[in-house]
Write a structure and sequence with these properties.
Length: 165
């Protein structure tokens, strides 16, 4: 199957995830449901624990998350396989509404859903990615379960991030 993802620069987190990853196995730690504020901080993708299928792995992905009672924000800094740095950011509410991704070259929008997931739409308004996320029991590992909706069918990826101390 030929995979065509619009977010090859890994701009949307967690497309962002932004184009992030698959892994060969589920980490062996307990997962917890946490309030969004538990995710606040800076996270670095663990390239070794994330897999990319037939996509080239980025050199690095650093994600900074911040939230208040009314706002969710993230900034993603990616260094691609080509060595070029790309930055994307988002600021919006957890309200099922789509807000622009600043730095997205293709006009993508991003929404935090009230059910705790998030989604990405392309500029035509089509949902191209849905994602759920969780924290390890100790709160030091964040796992993103991404589904990319492609013309060739859905492709699932898992991205693993470690929290900076």
């Amino acid at each position: 199957m030929k995979l065509k993802l619009k977010y090859s620069g890994c701009l949307t987190i967690l497309a962002v995830a932004v184009c992030m990853a698959t892994t060969t196995g589920q980490p062996a730690y307990a997962q917890i449901k946490a309030g969004f504020d538990a995710y606040n901080g800076t996270w670095n993708m663990d390239i070794a624990k994330s897999g990319f299928g037939n996509m080239p792995a980025p050199k690095s992905v650093r994600l900074t998350l911040s939230s208040t009672k009314t706002s969710r924000e993230w900034t993603q800094e990616t260094v691609g396989t080509d060595g070029k740095s790309r930055t994307a950011s988002y600021n919006g509410a957890e309200n099922n509404r789509y807000y622009p991704i600043t730095g997205s070259p293709d006009g993508a929008t991003f929404a935090y859903m009230k059910d705790g997931s998030f989604a990405v739409k392309d500029k035509s308004g089509k949902v191209v990615q849905t994602t759920t996320y969780s924290l390890s029991a100790g709160g030091e590992t964040m796992t993103l379960h991404n589904t990319f909706h492609t013309p060739d069918g859905d492709v699932t990826r898992v991205a693993v991030f470690q929290k900076e101390k």
